[in-house]
Design a protein that fits this description.
The chain is α/β, with parallel strands linked by helices. It has 40 helices and 26 strands. The strands form seven sheets. A seven-stranded mixed sheet has the order 13-16-12-17-20-11-21, with helices on both faces. The chain is globular, with a radius of gyration of 38 Å.
Length: 1171
């Protein structure tokens, strides 16, 4: 705000008023208007006159917002404390901060508050933490008990509550009969009822407040439900009456004429009790038939009675009550024609009033009197079942000592008592809290409003206590958490309790540049409703005034991509490719600028993330990408399944198809056919007996089979994690990880496996898979340079800002419009009082309930209004530019078809469509607004399993020997020494921890030297050494080193590798351009009837035609051993081994050979003279 402080803001008066701490306000603060600054300044000003800092309470809805506000307060106070008055260059806002901040410091010093030393005295809390605080003050009354943990993971509690409730069905109780009624109405589909009750429990904050009143007795249930519906009908008809009042006389005259001359005598007789009319029909349920008759000659019949599809009736005839003549006379013909003309003129007049058509059509959705008789019996039973369900959930909470945030909110309300019967806690708070500030008030729920009413009960105007509510109804988007923007609208006009609230509207936008603000103003003025409606949450648009006139970017653009109806997936991939290209373009053009990709749902990232990965882009994301979506995790799940159940043939096929094998379909078919009558694992073991397997199978199965034999032989004898992690290591699973993030995800998988493991297995494999599926990929560490690309949902982006925003998938729709078994709806009446409506789907074969259709329609309307607000939120995150992406089909006339109903693009399409018609589509089949794009169509680079193919490299001698030794140890520990002497190269098995660590370090360093030699770009390889410690740490994990030991070991390995590879005297050894250059060369010979296997670490022929045979050694000198003594001991120890290697070579070629040891710890190349 400091940049604009010298400018007179268009809303300066409102900002000045907001700092009048003697009055209460409700502030409408649109996107980028600086509301946090305003809240902070008022909070500070209140502190400056408070008796105690705890008198001022600020309530936010997120921890981030609370932390930001508290930090800002402390930052301002610290700045004021250390302010250098010799620097007099202060802006107006800085001068205001200094003045208010110094006043607070003076108060702080005089009252000895020590706020800077004790910032916890600043009462800035989230609504959830404040509710928990209140509930804990009276744990018994609030029903929260003891000291429970607050969590959103209450699935097990909900399932137990549902099971316990439905278990009453077996008894002979009134509850059992209610459950039976509910099940009967819902076709006795127990599984669906269980699912629906679970869903309702998780959203119980929308209905639990009403249940006690609704279940006082059966008569009361029906009375309350009916009274709510009657009230809704009356308010609707009163609203329509007000609209039609200016045409009342004409309409009454036409209605009387039509009713008297209906062609259908039965219909005429049924309407006789209502006609003739002297005024418009009454505004009650009984008069609905008369209203419907009026609609009969004004509107066309519409499909499904949906107001959105309503149309004016173009002409009337005798079926509408407008015959061509009455008695055959010419006078009657003239009269009839006059009535028809009068009706047409009335319709023409009504058409000029926006919204009238939909309001009239809505009447057709209203249930008639007595129509819902069967629903009332069902709903009565359902309310009793829900009451029992809620009680069972409380018991489950007590057993598990947990609660969720919904329960803490309900508990806080109980702890405060009723407004007219407050508890001691409420009275104590009344005397200790004098000022309340609420942020994000547009997302308040009815439960939270009730809490606020109880906290301010008894407050009077000008009694020194104030309420300050800040929010933006245009940014209300949390209805799924029971937020109701209608509450904001109602409080704005009515206040809270006895406290009148003056409305202040902010208009300044400090965030976005001129092109963005102009586009948003022009587009959303039409996308938002023209008038507010508290019952539906309709919010008119409020224009923003730009403060930053600077323009150095493109503003808002829309990239429309031509798609074909039956090739939707290809279109999504193409859209994602163009999105990824746009990210690359922005990063190149605006290095350092922040970029956000915002999506409506996480599923929209399924094609986006592969496109980003294909371009080696890094990003930051929280709670976006799920663990199970990664191929590497899918492979690990298959590995777990076969280790737990070797008879799982499908999982074996998945493993064989995974990157470490990559077997083609033909190989899988041959293996399956060979396994007839047995498990696929037996067939895999017998692969050598199968003819015509591919070269790929011949290469990988010799490594795959022993790796899996080892894993299966160790199951239930070691921990499941050890078995899976060892198998994954032997299969070179880490080589299939494309980056460090995937390695971290594998680590997270192994951690989850440890947490869920029971006695070497899993209690429920499906529960484990569900746990993995619900776990999000951990966000990568940002390091010293924060990642400038973020992936978020639109909801999560609220309150954030970015230089550039990209919005993919705007033509996508949400889930299909399925009919839920049960639906409910909370509606505010015209007085601002909440009402609950419930309905169930009609049993199969019967006509759909009018109440069900009514509630369903209202929920759709509210969802559409909220979707427009969500799109507004997403676009207004942008400071410099926003780009919208959508795929649309092309009509026969070459124009883009309208976006599907329910998509975000459809909400702003009327304006965009006018612009599209002026554009020329590019060769790529896309239209780029406001300027045409000439980019060519990109081919998808989405990774597949085959593109990740990383065949299993052959096991090292150590791995083979360790596998054999460990398997033997598990089967028969008594044979350990015999097996060890046959399999370990030095005839000793690493017996101590130090030896095991040294052995593993040697294997890892050998691998680095091998891959470095084979690399084509040595400089790039050296630059990546710092990133290898992640792989090394994972490989050393099974050794269970302490954190300090692990850090020391990794540091030693890195230093050793860098010294060796950077030594100019040794560079020539790793040159892969030598003749017959080879690393890890495998050779064998027969000796005493046995086959001996050898591996030569490094060999090549130099320019003098001499064969070099080099063995790598990672040993370290013993304490007190000099370098020369260490070299001599190593030469003597490995002389015979090198001479064996030489003999093998000379048997195959006639060439002189030189033998050497590469001691990496020194580092030095030590040539060994033959004995």
């Amino acid at each position: 705000m400091s940049e604009a402080s010298s400018i007179h803001l268009p809303d300066q008066h409102a900002r000045d008023c907001a700092l009048d701490i003697g009055r209460s306000f409700i502030v409408q603060a649109p996107a980028g208007s600086g509301k946090t600054e305003l809240l902070t300044m008022r909070f500070l000003k209140l502190l400056a006159m408070a008796s105690q800092p705890e008198e001022v309470l600020a309530i936010t809805f997120t921890k981030k917002a609370a932390s930001e506000m508290r930090d800002r307060i402390i930052r301002i106070l610290n700045w004021c404390r250390s302010f250098d008055y010799s620097d007099s260059q202060l802006s107006a806002i800085e001068a205001a901060r200094l003045s208010i901040g110094c006043s607070v410091l003076e108060r702080d010093d005089s009252q000895n508050w020590r706020l800077l030393q004790s910032p916890s005295r600043l009462r800035v809390q989230t609504i959830d933490s404040f509710c928990l605080y209140l509930a804990k003050q009276l744990p018994t009354l609030s029903q929260i008990g003891g000291n429970p943990n607050v969590t959103e993971g209450i699935d097990i509690c909900c399932k137990e509550a549902v099971n316990a409730t439905l278990a009453h069905l077996e008894g002979d109780t009134q509850l059992a009969r209610h459950i039976e009624t509910v099940l009967t109405h819902l076709d006795n589909d127990l599984a669906s009822v269980e699912t629906q009750l679970l869903h309702m429990l998780k959203q119980r904050d929308q209905w639990s407040n009403y249940i006690t009143d609704l279940t006082a007795n059966n008569t009361e249930t029906v009375r309350l439900l009916k009274s709510g519906l009657t009230e809704w009908i009356r308010e609707t008809l009163l609203s329509v009456t007000g609209i039609l009042k200016h045409s009342e006389n004409e309409l009454v005259e036409l209605a009387n004429f039509a009713a008297a001359h209906l062609d259908d005598e039965e219909q005429r007789l049924s309407l006789a009790r209502y006609f003739p009319l002297s005024s418009l029909p009454a505004s009650d349920t009984e008069a609905l038939p008369a209203w419907l008759f009026l609609l009969n000659f004004l509107l066309k019949k519409q499909k499904g009675d949906a107001p959105d599809t309503a149309e004016w009736l173009s002409r009337v005839n005798k079926t509408h009550g407008f015959p061509p003549e009455i008695d055959g006379s010419k006078e009657s013909q003239t009269a009839c024609k006059a009535y028809k003309n009068q009706r047409d003129a009335l319709v023409e007049t009504l058409q000029r009033h926006p919204g009238v058509l939909q309001k009239l059509a809505f009447i057709r959705l209203l249930p008639a009197a007595g129509e819902e008789t069967k629903q009332w019996a069902f709903l009565t039973s359902l309310c009793h079942v829900l009451r029992a369900l809620n009680a069972e959930l409380l018991l489950a909470f007590t057993r598990y000592r947990v609660v969720d945030f919904t329960q803490t909110g309900a508990a806080a309300n109980l702890a405060l008592g009723a407004e007219d019967e407050p508890t001691d806690l409420a009275l104590a708070l009344d005397s200790s809290i004098n000022h309340i500030l609420v942020d994000e008030f547009q997302d308040t729920s009815q439960l939270q409003l009730n809490l606020l009413k109880k906290l301010t009960a008894g407050w009077q105007p000008e009694d020194g206590r104030t309420l300050f509510l800040v929010g933006d109804p245009m940014q209300s988007c949390y209805s799924f958490r029971n937020a109701n923007v209608g509450i904001y609208l109602d409080v704005q006009s009515r206040g809270i309790g006895q406290i009148p609230l003056k409305t202040l509207v902010l208009q300044s936008n400090f965030r976005s540049q001129q092109p963005v603000v102009d586009w948003v103003n022009a587009t959303f003025a039409d996308a938002f409703p023209l008038q507010s409606d508290i019952s539906r949450g309709a919010v008119p648009y409020s224009r923003a005034e730009v403060i930053h006139e600077k323009t150095d970017s493109e503003g808002v653009a829309v990239n429309l991509i031509e798609t074909e109806k039956d090739r939707r997936l290809e279109a999504l991939v193409q859209e994602s490719e163009q999105l990824a290209d746009a990210v690359v373009h922005l990063q190149e053009k605006y290095p350092g600028d922040s970029i956000a990709i915002l999506v409506r749902t996480r599923t929209q990232l399924r094609t986006v993330i592969p496109a980003l990965r294909a371009r080696d882009l890094s990003w930051r994301a929280n709670d976006i990408d799920r663990l199970a979506d990664l191929p590497v995790i899918e492979d690990l799940l298959s590995l777990v399944r076969v280790i737990l159940n070797p008879g799982d043939n499908f999982s074996w096929l998945c493993l064989l198809r995974a990157p470490w094998c990559g077997l083609a379909s033909g190989d899988l078919l041959k293996l399956s056919q060979h396994s007839t009558g047995s498990s696929l694992w037996q067939s895999i073991n017998d692969y050598r007996a199968i003819d015509n397997l591919s070269a790929q199978a011949a290469q990988t199965l010799p490594q795959f089979v022993p790796a899996m034999q080892f894993a299966l032989s160790s199951r239930y004898k070691r921990s499941l994690r050890q078995s899976v992690e060892a198998a994954w290591g032997l299969l070179r699973g880490i080589n299939c990880c494309r980056n460090e993030l995937e390695i971290n995800c594998a680590r997270r998988f192994f951690t989850l496996l440890s947490e869920q493991e029971v006695a070497g297995g899993l209690e429920d494999i499906f529960a484990f898979e569900e746990k993995v599926g619900s776990t999000f990929i951990p966000s990568p560490e940002t390091g010293p340079q924060p990642c400038k690309l973020e992936l978020l949902t639109m909801h999560k982006s609220k309150g954030l800002e970015f230089d550039h925003v990209l919005l993919p998938g705007l033509s996508n729709t949400t889930k299909h419009d399925n009919k839920d078994l049960l639906i409910w709806h909370e509606r505010l009446n015209t007085e601002g009082n909440p009402r609950l409506f419930l309905a169930a789907v009609t049993p199969t074969g019967l006509e759909e309930s009018s109440l069900y259709k009514l509630i369903r329609h209202e929920k759709k309307i509210r969802q559409r209004l909220e979707s427009a607000r969500l799109l507004y939120i997403a676009i207004t995150r942008a400071k410099k530019s926003a780009t919208l992406f959508a795929g649309l089909t092309i009509e026969d006339d070459g124009e883009f078809s309208a976006p599907p109903a329910g998509s975000l693009l459809s909400l702003i399409w009327p304006l965009l469509h006018k612009q599209v018609r002026c554009q020329t589509r590019s060769p790529s089949g896309s239209t780029y607004l406001p300027t045409a794009s000439s980019g060519s169509r990109q081919q998808s680079n989405q990774s597949t399993m085959i593109s990740r193919l990383s065949p299993i490299s052959e096991f090292t001698d150590e791995e083979r020997e360790c596998m054999t030794a460990l398997c033997a140890d598990l089967e028969n520990r008594r044979q350990e020494e015999e097996i060890a002497s046959e399999n370990w190269p030095d005839h000793t098995i690493p017996s101590s921890q130090a030896e095991r660590v040294a052995s593993k370090i040697g294997t890892l360093i050998h691998k680095v030297l091998e891959t470095y030699t084979q690399s084509t770009n040595k400089a790039d390889y050296l630059a990546q050494i710092d990133k290898m410690d992640t792989f090394w740490e994972l490989s050393l994990r099974h050794l269970q080193l302490s954190a300090a030991e692990m850090e020391r070991t990794l540091g030693h390995m890195k230093a050793t590798v860098l010294k060796t590879l950077s030594d100019p005297k040794l560079v020539w050894i790793f040159d892969n351009q030598h003749r017959e250059s080879a690393c890890e060369l495998k050779m064998s010979r027969r000796h005493n009837g046995h086959t001996q296997q050898f591996v030569i670490d490094r060999t090549f022929i130099d320019q003098n035609d001499t064969r070099w045979i080099i063995d790598y050694k990672t040993s370290q000198p013993q304490p007190g051993q000099s370098e020369s003594e260490f070299i001599q001991s190593q030469a003597e120890k490995y002389r015979s081994q090198l001479e064996n290697y030489r003999d093998l070579m000379t048997a195959a070629e006639n060439r002189s050979a030189r033998l050497a040891l590469l001691l990496t710890d020194i580092p030095a190349l030590i040539e060994i003279e033959s004995s």
